[in-house]
Amino acid sequence: RLSCIRNNVWLACCGVISAGLAVLSSFGLMLFCGVPFVVTVANAPFLILGVGVDDMFIMIASWEQSSRKKEKSDVKSRLAETYAEAALSVTITTLTDVLAFFIGTWTAFPSVRSFCLYTGTAFVFCYLYTITFFGAIIVLNHKNEQENRHWLTCMPVGVDEDQAEKSCLYNACCIGSCSRQSSQPESEHPMSIFFKKYYGPFFTNKWIKLLVVLLYGAYLGGSIYGCTQMKEGINLRNLASDDSYVIPYYDDNDKYFSAYGPRVMVVITESVDYWNETVHLGIENCTQNLE
């Protein structure tokens, strides 16, 4: 929003901080429990940030939709209404994400198992911080708006008798605008008006719905074709722990032997005396015959 009171900048920042706290808490708990940290786990914060910001928008939207006609003393009712509307969807998305990642811990790959443990635990903490920490931040931000305070300086915004003698910077931070007009709260966000009055009615047109179905059919066909052309592959180096001997092995193999073809391995299934010179010669002859 352009309003110097209700632009929710700090609210958005605290939503990102909430996701960051979830990452710190989950990583700290897993490291304390001795779960190994592998390089693939470094991708988990990006997943948590996406889900955390999504939950943040759901909470803010539910808060904005709650009745604005209630008095400042009725914050409890507004917050209860917000949780009644938002907590269900946030809970369901969290449960599905946590279930998906905890099922992934059944894999035989230790690195994938560690990644799923870290990420699944981070989703749990993200949910807890969203319904506790971020809910409190919403209330504090609402209190700031009710007292007509500037979003950055937290100073009361209003018409000052001596504002004509003040600088434009002072008027912008303490009055609300350089034009010396007090900022008034907006009744409804322009984006909400756009989707309600224009976007929704546009897509309810029967021809538009038919076009959407055709476009989705083309998209689905292209997706199926793309899946048939997909080549499966994975870098085995990333499946080992950071201190594993496998990592320098794959590095040296790619550096020195990547130009050669596939390796052929010979297994001697019986017990032999490798110290015997005759056995040495027999193995060498076998190798030469294979070559």
UniProtKB/TrEMBL annotation:
Record localization: Membrane
Chain coiled-coil ranges: none
Lineage: superkingdom: Eukaryota
Classification via SUPFAM superfamilies: Multidrug efflux transporter AcrB transmembrane domain
Keyword terms of this UniProt record: Glycoprotein, Membrane, Transmembrane, Transmembrane helix
Membrane spanning residue stretches: 9-38, 44-63, 83-109, 115-140, 207-226
Gene Ontology CC terms, in alphabetical order: membrane
Residues in SSD domain copies: 1-140
Predominant location category: membrane
Keyword Signal in record: no
Membrane topology: Multi-pass membrane protein
Range of residues in the leader sequence: none
Pfam families (UniProt xref): Patched (PF02460)
Stated family: Belongs to the patched family.
Name of the protein this chain belongs to: Patched domain-containing protein 3
Lineage: Eukaryota, Metazoa, Chordata, Craniata, Vertebrata
Gene: Ptchd3
